Amino acid sequence: MFYYSIKRLLMLIPVLLGMTLIVFAIIHAIPGNPALTILGTKATPEAIHSLNRSLGLDNPWYVQYFSYLKDILSGNLGTSIQTNSPISSEIWPHLAATIELSFVAMIIAVFVGINAGIISAWKQNSFLDYTAMILALIGVSMPVFWLGLLEQWGFSIKLQWLPSIGRDDIRNSVDPITNLYLIDTLLRGRLDQFWMVIRHLILPAIALATIPTAIIARMTRSSMLEVLKSDYIRTAKAKGQRMIWIVYKYALKNAFIPILTVIGLQTGLLLGGAILTETIFGWPGVGLYIYNAIQYRDYPVIQSGILVIAFIFVMVNFIVDLLYGLFDPRIKYR
Amino acid sequence: MPQASQAQPEQSTVKDISPTIMAIGEFWKAFRKNKPAIAGTFIVVFFILLAIFARFIAPQGINDQNIGIRLQPPSAAHWFGTDDFGRDIFSRIVFGARLSLRVGFLSVVGSIIAGTLLGVIAGYFGRFLDVVISRIFDILLAFPSILLSIAIVAILGPSLNNALVAIAIVNIPVFGRLVRSRVLTVKEEEYVVAARSIGMGDMRIIFHHVLPNSFAPIIVQGTLNIATAILDAAGLGFLGMGAQAPLPEWGKMLSDSREYIQNAPWTVLFPGLAIVLVVVGFNLIGDGLRDALDPRMKN
Question: What is the pTM of this model?
Answer without folding.
Answer: 0.87
